[in-house]
Sequence to fold (220 residues):
Amino acid sequence: MGDKSGGALDGKTLAGIAGQVKAVADLGVEVCIVIGGGNIFRGLQAAAEGMDRVGADYMGMLATVINSLALQEYLERIGKFTRVMSAIEMAEVAEPFIRRRALRHLEKGRIVIFAGGTGSPFFTTDTAAALRAAEIEADIILKGTKVDGVYDSDPLTNKNARKYDRVSYLEVLNQGLKVMDSTAISMCMDNQMSIVVFNLYKGNNLMRIIKGEKIGTFVS
Fold:
C-alpha cells in the first residue's frame, strides 16, 4: 500500500516491485512469490479484537488473493506472463495450487504467485512461503520487508539496535528474533532452506542479492 492507508493499493509501489521482479526473471531466474494481505486485513489482529480466529484467518487469506491479482496485473503490463495459484479454490480468478502445474509454469518462464496462504487457518503467510518453497524445491527464500535485515530489537524504536549479517535458525528461535514465525523457521530448518531478509523498497536490492552481493541478513 506504499504510504497510503485504509487498505489501499498503491500503484507506484506495485510498479516498483513488479519492475524488480521482471529484471530478475529476465536473467532466467525462476521466481515464485508469496504475498501477505496485511494492508487489507490481518487475521491475528481481528482475532485479538474478538472475531473468531478461523473466520478471521480465512478473511486474511482472501486478502492475499487480492494483492496477488494486483501484482499479476502489474507484471503482465510489463510483459511478464504470470500465474496466480490459490490454496483456496476460486476458479474464476486463480488456478488451484497443484505442485506439478506450478513446476511446469516455472519451466515455461512464467512467474508464479502463490495466494491464499496454506489454505488452512492458524498458519501465517510466512509458513505458506516456507511450505511452498519446500514443495517446489526452491534454492532460497528472499523475504522482502521495510527494514534492511534482522536486528536484536526494533531499529525503528531503538537507535542502538544491532543488525545481524548472519544468524542461525536456532538463534532466531531461541532469541525470538522477528524473521518469520517459529513454524516457518522450523520448516526452513528441517528442509535446510536458507533465507535472506532484506529491504525490498531500497533501489534494486533484489537484483543485487541474485548477483551475489551481501544484502540484508542471511539465515541458515
Remarks:
- Residues 100 and 136 are 9 Å apart (CA to CA).
- The helical segments are 11-25, 43-48, 53-77, 99-107, 125-135, 169-175, 182-190, 205-210.
- The chain has a mean pLDDT of 94.
- The chain has two domains: 1-138, 139-220.
